[in-house]
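Reopening this one. Same input as before:
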Amino acid sequence: MVGMAARHCPFSLQKKVMGKLLPQAFSEALRDGDLDFLQDRFVSLKIDDLKYRLTLTLTNNQLQIIPNTKPAEVTIGGNLDEFIRLAARKEDPDTLFFQRRLTIEGNTELGLEVKNLIDSIDIADLPNWIQRSLQYADLFIAKH
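Same output, byte for byte:
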């Protein structure tokens, strides 16, 4: 159901929601210039089990989603569970990639920069509601 909702949600609504979430989740990285390598570059996150793709870019120091009509330089793919484990810090990014539970397709160098960025984010620096959401999502997938 989550996959169907994500796939059929109008892009304008996705953009509006992500326009609120991304700056909160990555405020420190944006402030410190850690995302500058994404300037005018396109990275896709492909959630295989949901059949959903999200393409990100950095424009004028704003992390935003764009329509999937632009070809991404790199695509990081995997099932939703793996992305949740990664975001909740329950799995190490290197482990997920080496075990091929997450994949990098395209510009591997850019993909590794994204992986290193993900690895450098301290979950304790995220807003409390994001931390709690990740904890609940991780608990949910652990039980199922």
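So the earlier flakiness isn't reproducible anymore. For the record, The CA atoms of residues 42 and 57 lie 5 Å apart.
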